[in-house]
C-alpha cells in the first residue's frame, strides 16, 4: 500500500518541498547551476518513484522548472524522460 500524500516530503533528499491543496513546489539552492541540476534531477527521480509507488501521476502540462541564477548554462530536468 502506498504512503499518504503528507509523506511526500520524505522522498526529497536534496530539495525542500511545500504543499498547499493540490499544488506542490520543491526548491533548492547551490553554488553552481551544475550542482543544482544534479540535486534537482535526483529528487525529480525520487518524486517520480514516489508517484508510481502511490499510483499517482504528474500532470506534466501543469509542471515546470525555474532557475534563478547568474549567467550560466541552462539545464533541463526530466520526469520519466519527459522534460519538465
Structure summary:
The protein is an alpha+beta fold. The protein has one helix at residues 33-53, and strands at residues 16-20, 23-27, 78-79, 82-83. Helix content is 25%, strand content 17%.
Tell me what you see in this structure:
- The longest helix has 21 residues, at 33-53.
- The strands form 2 sheets. The protein has a two-stranded antiparallel sheet with strand order 1-2.
- The protein is built from 1 helix and 4 strands; from the N terminus they run ββαββ.
- It has one domain (5-83).
- With 84 residues, it is an alpha+beta fold.
- The mean pLDDT is 81.
- The termini are far apart.
Write the topology of this structure:
Layout: E1 16-20, E2 23-27, H1 33-53, E3 78-79, E4 82-83
Antiparallel strand pairs: 1-2, 3-4
Average pLDDT metric? 81
Beta strands, count: 4
| N to C succession of SSEs | EEHEE
Strand order of the largest sheet: 1-2
How much strand? 15-25%
Radius of gyration: 13 Å
Structural class: alpha+beta
The tally of structural domains comes to 1
First-residue to last-residue Cα separation = 28 Å
